[in-house]
Amino acid sequence: MSGDTVPAVGVWIFPSAPAPELVDLARHVEDRGLDELWVGDEGPARDPFAVLAAAAVVTDRIRLATGVTNPYVRHPGVTAASMLTVHELSRGRAVLGVGAGGQMSLAPFGLEARKPVDRVREFLDITRAVATGTPAAGYAPPDVSVDEAAAGAPMPVFVGARGPRLNRLASELADGAFVSGMPPFRYPAVVDWARSERPIDIALYPSVAFTEEAVERHRPEMIWSLLDTPLEVREELGLDVGAVRSAAGALRAGDPEPARALIDDTVFERVMLAGQPPMVGRRLAELVREHRPASIGLALLQDDLHEGVDHAAEAFATMTAELEGDRWSA
């Protein structure tokens, strides 16, 4: 983005609510003036592709994205066809986000992220082959296929990752990088990797808790991102990998207390944004100034997602006012 441009804004959600509520939430995101809705694909919950397909026919403007799927649970060709269908239904508003997959998305199926760079590279190749009806390694196009041209524009493909190799792959081959699920102090390195080959779009999505109730409700769940994060991040936070694994195992078994104790206030404040909307908005403005993303959003960690969208809209209003103030004072 240019120095005097306010980026697009949006929210990320995990699809744990009933599907009709998620579709209604998409309408609410659009009604509140936001630009994007990213839906997670992490473990058995509501299927993000079905939710986004339904959202495509009840919205007119917002981008609809997976944030992110993976190349292990579904064949890349099936994933591409599903999202190209959303792209067609939405008249060109779909974004396919892919990553290596973490514990939440793979462990329920007994899968592991083997050779993640090779698998994501293959995913990108097959997705483009399905979209264009051309052959690729592992894919021979049938006589009938989904044509992204029917939507009027190519479907962007973003890579979401925490480490250098996948982000450099994104810079080489993808349309953008989805930067989320990591502490903000990690952003400078990740954004640099994602822009190392080409200046691709960056979608920057820190996690947020607007209320004390949301902080305490979701504090233990942050253990999942710490489990999948690179070793140097845990070291920066002073967390032992064995303790993180033990807390994650306890949480999976139904006991959140070890994770709650491990993620104390000092750790929590470093891994996500917390506070009232104006405070969060000012922090978002700082992130925009530093990283110049094409879009910036908030990963909502609260039970009342409609309220979360309302709070996010307030935060974005503060962010926009700050950034427009920069432009007038320049």
Written account of the structure:
With 330 residues, the protein is of the alpha/beta class. The chain is 48% helix and 13% strand. It contains 15 helices and ten strands. It has helices at residues 19-31, 48-56, 76-89, 103-106, 116-132, 164-173, 187-194, 212-218, 223-228, 231-237, 241-252, 257-262, 265-271, 277-291, 305-329, and strands at 8-13, 36-39, 63-66, 94-98, 157-159, 176-180, 201-205, 207-209, 273-274, 295-300. An eight-stranded parallel barrel has the order 1-2-3-4-5-6-7-10, surrounded by seven helices. β1, α1 and β2 form a beta-alpha-beta unit. α5 (116-132) packs parallel to α6 and α6 packs parallel to α7. The model has no long low-confidence stretch (mean pLDDT 93).
Quick rundown:
With 330 residues, this protein is an alpha/beta fold. The chain has 15 helices and ten strands. The protein has an eight-stranded parallel beta barrel, surrounded by seven helices.
